[in-house]
Amino acid sequence: MKKLLIVFILGIFFSCQDKKDQKVSSTSEEKRKPNIVLFYVDDLGYGDVGCYGATAVKTPNIDKLAANGIKFTDAHSAAATCTPSRYSLLTGNYAFRNDAKILPGDAPLLIDTSKITMPKMLQNAGYATAVVGKWHLGLGIGQVDWNQKITPGANEVGFDYSYLIPATGDRVPTIFVENGKAVNLSTDDPLTISYDHIIGNRPTGLQHPELLKYKADRQHSKTIVNGISRIGYMAGGKSAEWVDEEIPFVLTDQAKGFINRNKENPFFLYYSFHDIHVPRAPNQKFQGKTDLGPRGDAIVQMDYVVGEIVKQLEQLSLLEETIIIFTSDNGPILDDGYFDKAEELIGDHKPSGPFRGAKYSIYEAGTRMPTILSWKANVEPAESKALLNQVDLYASIASLVDQDIPEYIIDSENHLDAWLGKTQKGREEMIEEGFTLALRDGQWKYIQPFTTQNKPAWMANKNIESGLMSKAQLFNLENDISEENNLAENNPDLVEKMEESLQMLIDKSQDK
Ligand code: NG6
Ligand code: CA
């Protein structure tokens, strides 16, 4: 009997060893806290999903979430690019305060590990937390050695479990990192990367375009992995390379594993898609599902993944008690470096919906995201025009789970009632961030004149409406949703007032 008991205890010990994210026990009070699943899509535009008007691509699973939840029409990512948006989402502060810009694949961790992030706050509230998918917030300190334990990273930022695409699919290293360890990396073939000079003997896109699935611009024409050239050079690490077409399945398996391990206690899953960022290489299962080429097919693939996770929640009888938030990190882009025919095949499809601009843009399409919240047990289906920002999820969720937020979090506002559809009143004022800043005040939008040094050189020859102008811009979104009539010249007083308000928000200090 004693022996049996020892075997049993050892069994439990070892089964918990591989993934250290299981919360051992939970009180009945903790049990009542809803699970939170955040589907965070990459570069998905307002007009890219069915329930927001798309017809050239079908997204039944996302549409179903909207039909059962709140569909927001004025909810924003914190910025028009990835790293800044994700920084704000997790820290509760605007990214410009930390000068957060798009990171290369070898950047050190951007988030201060001594601070309480949203996932840490949720850990304090008794949640098991996981991030699966794109990270793009840097890893390690200084230059990362991918062959050693990679730390600090997502785990030190507050995730019990992490399975990461370190930066983006278009940047080396093209490997997964699980809890700070490169997956399937062999010690016989160490991995190194470089962002400034050629290393290793893999062919590059520039030298060997004949090896490519599709060609790319100069920036994306470095090391070829899986028939796709990338930004940066990579040597070694052959056994750890991912296969782009398999990424959604690999990530979904990891996400499902985490949910399964935590079905008995509250969990927070940050499912951070690689789709529909470039390089778009949807699985064969989805190729040709739309007439839009790989970009459209990647949307269908992403929708399928949403359906898979929802199905699992349903099978585990967790759907009623799970808050599902679906949104994107920045606006849409057709040509972001790879010639995958996204522009040629676009037809009548409008990735930005009715809005002006795109990814990188300070106009609305840069940050106004398709955003849905469903919580079957507690939220009545509705459409909401509340002005909201992803930076607010931190304070809003903290209020839901009865956690205080630290005083160094100065931008996140508690709008829980708006997120849950109890009111249509969200923010009064909000900063929008592109390569310049804008202020939303109700229906008014003021865009700061910009100084050229903030615009990256590579944007010069791209067909992107960044919205950067040397003079002030002012729009009344109530009757000019597509920001066509610049009213700044005729409303100097309002421009001055909004510039002052924006400046006050910018100057708000974190050192309290
Ligand atoms: C840009 C890349 C673009 C994309 C973006 C990051 C060039 C010319 N362009 O620098 O392809 O990778 O960074 O996208 O290198 S994001 O969604 O992660 O912000
Ligand atoms: Ca993005």
Describe the structure.
By secondary structure, this protein is α/β, with parallel strands linked by helices. The protein has two domains: 35-191 and 236-427, Alkaline Phosphatase, subunit A, CATH 3.40.720.10; 432-506, Arylsulfatase, C-terminal domain (2-Layer Sandwich). The chain has eleven helices and 20 strands. The protein has a ten-stranded mixed sheet, sandwiched between helices. Helix 6 links the parallel strand 4 (128-134) and strand 5 (161-165). Helix 7 runs parallel beside helix 8. The model is unreliable at 1-17 (pLDDT under 50). It binds 2-acetamido-2-deoxy-6-O-sulfo-beta-D-galactopyranose and calcium ion. Calcium ion is lined by residues 42-43, 82, 277, 329-330.
Features:
Arylsulfatase, C-terminal domain; 512 residues; 2 domains; binds calcium ion; 15% strand; binds 2-acetamido-2-deoxy-6-O-sulfo-beta-D-galactopyranose; four-stranded antiparallel sheet; alpha/beta; single chain; ten-stranded mixed sheet
Number of helices: 11
Q: What fold name stands as the CATH topology of the largest domain?
A: Alkaline Phosphatase, subunit A
Number of strands: 20
From the alpha-carbon coordinates, what is the Rg to the nearest angstrom? 22 Å
Outline the low-pLDDT stretches. Answer: 1-17
The distinct bound ligands, ions and cofactors come out as: 2-acetamido-2-deoxy-6-O-sulfo-beta-D-galactopyranose, calcium ion
Largest sheet: 10 strands, mixed
Mean pLDDT: 93
| CATH architectural group of the largest domain | 3-Layer(aba) Sandwich
- How many domains? The number is 2
For the terminal residues, how far apart are their CA atoms? 60 Å
What is the assigned CATH homologous superfamily of the largest domain?
Alkaline Phosphatase, subunit A
Name the beta content range: 15-25%
Shape, per Cα inertia axes = globular
